[in-house]
Every structure is written in structure tokens, then in C-alpha cells.
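[09:14] KT: can someone run the structure on this one? pasting the chain below
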Amino acid sequence: MSVAIMTDSNSGITQGEAAGLGVRVVPMPFYINDEVYFEDITMSQKEFYGYLEQKVDVKTSQPTPDNMMKAWREALADDDELVYIPMSSGLSSTCETATMLSHEDEFEGKVFVVDNQRISVTQRRSTLDAKALADKGFGAEKIREILLREKFESSIYIMMDTLYYLKKGGRITPAAAAIGTLLKIRPVLQIQGEKLDAYTKVKTVKSGKQAMIKAIKKDMETRFGDASGGNCFLDIAYTASAEDVEQFRQEVLEEFPNHVPQIDPLSLSVACHIGPGALALAVSKKIPELEDLWACAIE
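[09:31] RB: done, C-alpha cells below
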């Protein structure tokens, strides 16, 4: 049976990239000054970041049930089964809605929703893994089983440039934001599993980068059992300038010479809470079922 792979634009996969990768992407809606837009459809990521820098009122949302089911029907018109990988259920109710809809009669046994609690570049990795598994002949239910087994095998560390957006989203108090700004504190956050949590605090960009790199090395050694990181992928996400991203890429390559990180803008659902000027470093463990594929790529 043929299996379609679908994710949402929180993965950072653009509509143009999706066609080349052989996957489908549901555009996430968001509101700017109460007017609805769709990521990479009616507004580009670049335009979104421009509004974000102007500190306009930005709110994220989820696809309507009708839009989600329409996307599923289009996929099932071409394939027998569908694996749908939405953003983490810990960060949005999109996954819960999708799971409920997948039990409707027309989708039961055909649409398999994966709550593997990822977002941005790690969600992208899950999508690419799912596509590779489908290409190897795995069925949709088995793909979901594998992705759920691996759902905690990733981390994202994010260094922020400002506390303004955390305060605006109610994640820290105005007093804490004021003190942090006065002391020039830069928080480093982590996404590990379903939650966005504080990881550490730094005062300089240099120390923030070092903290993220150190955290990734620790994950490789302690969680993934491979200090060299040979069984892991590295990815960089950002809302920072192109120059800052390139400099960080070079620093990551120096620390991890055997890795060529994928580089993508932070997905909009994260960016609206993080703000401009942010850098993120992520690690994802490779799936054992695809070991032969990664070995061939290395060779």
C-alpha cells in the first residue's frame, strides 16, 4: 500500500520544498492585527519576521477541521494511507484535533496521527524519517509506531535576544522581564519532549552559543550514548540575521566537524514567542530502521 507523509508548516518545510521532498505540508494560520494569514501561502516567513520586529499583535492558531480534512482527502486520493505529523501536543491543540478527526469513519484505518512531540527542525527530521520509512515499504501504522518510540530522542536549545516576547506571551512577569533586560540577561530555552522550558541564563552571545553546544554534546554522550554524535543529526534554526547564522554555522562545524547541519528559520509558532535575533541548535537521534540509508549517505 502506498503511504503519503504530511506535516504542518511548523516543521519549517516550505510549500516549495515539500514538492521536492515528496511530502505534503498543511499551512498554519496566524493572525496579525486580527487579519488571518497562512504561513508560506499568503505571507512569507520573511514578511512575518518584519511584522514581528515592528512588535505588532501576532497570534497563532490551528487549521480548521474542514481545512485539515480537505488536505487529508487530497492525499488519500493519491495514496492508500496517510501519516500526519503535526506540531507537539504540548505546544498546541492541533494534534488533539487531528487525532479526533482521524477516528471519523472515512479516515479510520487510513490516517495515522503521530504525536511525537516535536516542532521546528526536529519535526522536520521526523517528517523526513517518515518519508524514508515509507519509501522502504513500511506501512503507515508501523511508521507511527516507530516515530512514537523515538519521540523523546531529540532536543532543541534556543538562545533569545530579547525578553519582550516572553513577557508579551505571559510566560514571564513584566517585573522579571524588566530586571532581565536591565541586567542584559539572555535566556537559553530548551524543547525536550512536549514542553518549552528554561535551560540556563547567559549575558553574552558567545556564552549562549557555548551553552547550547555544551548541552548538545552532553545529550549525545549521556542520552544517545555516542559522544562522537555519529548516530545523530544536528540542525540550526533561527530568527537572527544571515550574518549571525553563518557565523554560528561555522562555530558548530568547528565543534562537530562530522556534521553538516540543516539550517531553517524557526517556525512561526515558536518565533512569535521568541522574537527576532534568536539562534537555536538541535540534535535528533537517527532511527535504527534507517541505519543502512545513513551509512550509505556517509560513504
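[09:33] KT: thanks! The two ends are 31 Å apart (CA to CA).
[09:34] RB: yep, looked fine to me
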